[in-house]
Amino acid sequence: MRRTIPVLLAVAATAAGCGGDERTSATEEPPIPPPTTEEPIPPDRSWPGGARRTPPSVASRTPRTRPTPHCTGTTRSLAGRGVAAVLRRPATAHRAPGGAVTASFDLVNLNGVPTTFRVLGARLGPDCRPAWYRVQLPIRPNGIEGWVRAPSVRRYTVRFRIVVDLSDRAITVYRGGRQVVRTRTAIGRSETPTPTGSFYVNQRLLASDPGGPWGPGGIGISAFSPVLTSWTQGGPIAIHGTNQPHTIGLAASNGCMRIANDVLQRLIYLIPDGTPVRIRA
Q: Binning pLDDT at 50, 70 and 90, where does residue 6 land?
């Protein structure tokens, strides 16, 4: 199933440009396997004197009772595995499993895009299946994490990742560890820098005016400008097109990354929501 990419209206464009997920490239991940509960079978051993004990008859054998798995409270790391989750229903994020609420999320965000998280870990329940997920949240401050109840989301895996190198002013896209796209980019000016850190794609938006400052659209990520805090929707950061192609390769933006429109047009349909994004200096 392919998620429809919303058209970016004038107000939404101002926010996302700062200026879903593709099911053919994002697949459902099977449940985390529970720890082994079966006892190991000891090797055959000789008894003193060289004689071997006669095994008991079948009728006299006592059935072995397998222990009940104890998974409650066990945590598993999912970082680096390209795991994402989309909301099934409105949910709250907690400081810890069952702890204080830090944020609330609707099924869709302010731009009408399904709310997506990057999954970093899991807390298992008594059935050895995830009861909670530790996720990265698409809100300020950058990189903030929280815990959401597992039944409130649908988890899937993403094969892509994006690396932004500010020194080289280049963006590289990998699929399954293989480079598929590398392109030049404009980055933020010194007074409006592009933030660094680990983020993820949380929305992809088409521009209502492809000839405008965001070109055909933008790939929104979970980062926010460190200085433009009063902008609409908090000054979110995106990778987007441009109507000023001569600025590509320069420190010329308000913090977003401007790339060639033809490249953006390809990436916006290639990259699924939940894709990890690493921005490094």
A: confident
Q: What residue ranges in 225-267 does DSSP mark as E strands?
A: 236-240, 251-253, 257-258
- What's this model's pTM, rounded to 2 decimal places? 0.79
Compare 114 and 26 and report the one with higher pLDDT: 114
CATH class of 71-158: mainly beta
Q: Phi then psi for 242, rounded to 5 degrees?
A: -160, 155
The answer to whether the bond into 276 is cis (omega within 30° of 0) is: no
Domain boundaries, the chain: 7-24+159-280, 71-158
Dihedral sign, CA of 77, 277, 202, 24?
negative
CATH class of the region 7-24+159-280: mainly beta
Measured CA distances, 117 to 99, 203, 262 (Å)? 19, 11, 28
* pLDDT at 127 (0 to 100): 93
Q: What value does the mean pLDDT of the chain take? A: 85
